[in-house]
Design goal:
By secondary structure, the chain is α+β, with helices and mostly antiparallel strands. The protein is built from 6 helices and 5 strands. Helix 3 crosses helix 6.
């Protein structure tokens, strides 16, 4: 029986070991390199993607657990890179090295999907699991608040 999953709206057949982490399937097999390897233990958040709309750590998620599910990577968040979060990231000069940014944005997108008007405290609490070695946490919080405001006006 063939196994598959939908990644960024496209069905992909899976022909790898069931224990392979989703991160390596995305990066090595499909060349979706926006999702980053950070710690390999699900602690830093650089590898965050959505599975059926929920943020998960792809470095510790085996392929077997996402069969027949919908995966969204940073490449699938917006066709043109113009999601409100991506725009807010640039408006607020969030990235420095940029390594953690895809995971940060994907976690923030998951937050805004379930809480479209989060308080600053809710943003900070939700983003605690995503590490930014450059320390741009205040800018990240400000960008998420800005994106929430933008999205509320578009609704």
């Amino acid at each position: 029986m063939k196994q598959s999953m939908i990644i960024n709206g496209t069905t992909h057949e899976i022909n790898v070991d069931n224990d392979m982490p989703l991160l390596w399937f995305l990066r090595d097999e499909l060349e979706f390199t926006g999702t980053k390897f950070g710690c390999g233990m699900g602690l830093c958040g650089a590898c965050t993607v959505h599975v059926n709309g929920q943020a998960i750590r792809s470095c510790t998620t085996p392929i077997s657990s996402v069969i027949n599910k919908e995966i969204t990577t940073i490449e699938g968040l917006s066709e043109n890179g113009d999601h409100a979060l991506q725009k807010a990231w640039l408006n607020n000069n969030v990235p420095q090295c940029g390594y953690c940014q895809a995971g940060q944005i994907m976690n923030a997108a998951s937050l805004l999907a379930v809480n479209p008007a989060p308080t600053i405290q809710e943003i900070e609490t939700s983003m605690q699991g995503n590490i930014c070695r450059c320390g741009t946490y205040q800018r990240i919080t400000k960008a998420i608040a800005e994106a929430a405001d933008t999205l509320s006006k578009e609704a």
